[in-house]
Amino acid sequence: MPIKIEPKKGLTVCMIEGEIDINSSPDLKKTFDKLISQKVPKLVINLSKVTYVDSSGLATLVEILKNMRSYGGKMRLTNLSSKIKSLFEITKLDKLFEIMASEEEAVSNFL
After folding, report:
1. What angle do CA 2, 87, 67 make, to 5 degrees?
2. Whole-angstrom distance between the N-terminal and C-terminal Cα of the chain?
3. What domains can be seen in the chain, in order of their start residue?
4. What is the pLDDT of residue 85?
5. What is residue 60's three-state secondary structure?
6. Residue 82, Cα to own-chain centre: how many angstroms?
7. Which of 19, 22, 23, 111 could disulfide-pair with 52, CB 3.0 to 4.6 Å?
8. Please, what is the Cα angle at 68 between 38 and 53, to 5 degrees?
9. Average of pLDDT values for 60-74?
10. For residue 101, is pLDDT > 80?
């Protein structure tokens, strides 16, 4: 699973490609554990190139958020497809995560 990580305006932006499922979740967790160990204060995860998320993928994203919050870090999700956005709404995870329409919006007003 390709994950592109780049610093942008004092925060870290991650672009994930492909499917976030039982097969890719361990790699995703490993990548984000490295960022969390560095105590990255602000993280934007762009999901525009994610085509599918299963329950293990959701659990991994929740764990990343929980680990970031443990040291005061903040995380936003952006560019969710309508299918993935509805998955977050059905599971009520849209109440837990800060979801922004675009990466630009998430980056520009991240205080």
Report:
1. 60
2. 30
3. 3-108 (3.30.750.24)
4. 97
5. helix
6. 16
7. 19
8. 110
9. 97
10. yes
